[in-house]
Specification:
2 domains; alpha+beta; four-stranded antiparallel beta sheet; Butyryl-Coa Dehydrogenase, subunit A, domain 1; 9 strands; elongated; 7 helices; Butyryl-CoA Dehydrogenase, subunit A, domain 2; three-stranded mixed beta sheet; binds flavin-adenine dinucleotide
Length: 299
């Protein structure tokens, strides 16, 4: 198997690296300190096609492959892990299910603005009593006429405090278990009965908001249903698979930044009259880090 990137992939990586080093890295600490959503960076990354890397060009994406997406995400996350996760959620947790299961109309209306980087998307699955056991979700969607009436609270939703659109997992029939789960596309800025709840205080990745989403008799047009009833759980599982690729890439970017900083410091820090990088014990550690990172990136 050939793991070598194509010329196009290398070109995109170089472009994203240059952009991230010049524009994201220098403000990353400030973003983290102030918990500020990097609005201007999101818009610029959108202009570069990075908010919908694998989304077809007809829906304002870059129409590229997943390896390119991962390479770009590693570079962004190397400069700022918060920016990395925001980009990841737009591309995967939100972008993937809408692209894979949405109708032509839904994609034009709800995917293009996110893939084009004009607004953010999020995916709301987790609830206080449904984490790993996602099929136990309680958020209820009752079809009444041409709308779903949604009641429930979602927790830990990345970008939930700033996103315009959300793919929301809910159940039409709690007794049906996973078969009752559907996914609805919700316009969070135009839905009465919706509000952002608590925004979590985290220990890191602070420019990425992690929020509670509260739905109280929120009205969602029935035409916003993704796919058909009964498919929701499968859609959710494939969306989460896409999300894991993004979070894996984010972790590789964070690791790459740690390695580069450690290497630079080891060359600069002098003890016992020599840079500590000349000591074999330090070299072993750096070599192990580099090996594990290479292995992780190749996955
Ligand atoms: C920063 C952040 C961002 C997030 N963003 C989103 C988002 O955008 N959208 C969204 O829907 N959710 C999001 N989540 C929620 C995330 O998906 C959940 O935290 C995750 O599903 C785990 O659920 P939980 O935290 O309730 O842990 P629990 O399910 O309560 O698990 C607790 C522990 O038990 C372990 N465990 C659980 N079941 C088993 C088992 N069967 N066998 C062995 N061990 C088990 C788990 O591995 C874990 O260590 C986010 C979470 C965080 C922290």
């Amino acid at each position: 198997m050939n793991f070598a990137p194509t010329e196009e992939q290398k070109m995109v990586r170089e472009m994203v690296r240059k952009y991230s080093e010049a524009n994201i890295g220098p403000v990353a600490a400030e973003l983290d300190r102030t918990h500020r959503h990097p609005e201007e960076i999101c818009r610029e990354l959108g202009g570069m096609g990075l908010m919908g890397v694998a989304v077809p060009a007809e829906y304002d994406g870059a129409g590229m492959d997943n390896v390119t997406y991962v390479m770009a995400l590693i570079e962004i996350s190397k400069a700022c892990a918060s920016c990395g996760v925001i980009v990841s959620v737009n591309n995967s947790l939100y972008g993937y299910p809408v692209n894979a299961f949405g109708t032509e109309e839904q994609k034009k209306k709800f995917l293009a603005p996110v893939a084009g980087g004009k607004v953010e998307g999020c995916y709301a699955l987790t609830e206080s009593s449904a984490g790993s056991d996602a099929a136990a979700l309680k958020c209820r969607a009752e079809l009444k006429g041409d709308r779903y009436i949604v009641n429930g609270v979602k927790t830990f939703i990345t970008s939930g405090n700033i996103a315009r659109y959300c793919v929301l997992a809910a159940t039409t029939d709690p007794a049906a278990g996973y078969r009752g789960i559907i996914n609805l596309i919700v316009d969070l800025k135009e839905t009465s009965g919706f509000k952002v709840g608590k925004v979590e205080e985290k220990m890191g990745i602070l420019a990425s908001g992690t929020a509670e989403l509260v739905f109280e008799d929120a009205e969602v047009p029935a035409e916003n249903l993704l796919g058909t009833p009964g498919q929701g759980f499968r859609q959710m599982l494939s969306g989460l698979d896409a999300g894991r690729i993004g979070i894996g890439a984010q972790a590789c970017g964070i690791g790459r930044a740690a390695l580069e900083d450690a290497l630079a410091y080891a060359k600069e820090r002098v003890q016992f009259g020599k840079p500590i990088a000349t000591f074999q014990a330090i070299q072993f550690k750096l070599a192990d880090m580099a090996t594990e990172l290479d292995a992780a990136e190749l996955m």
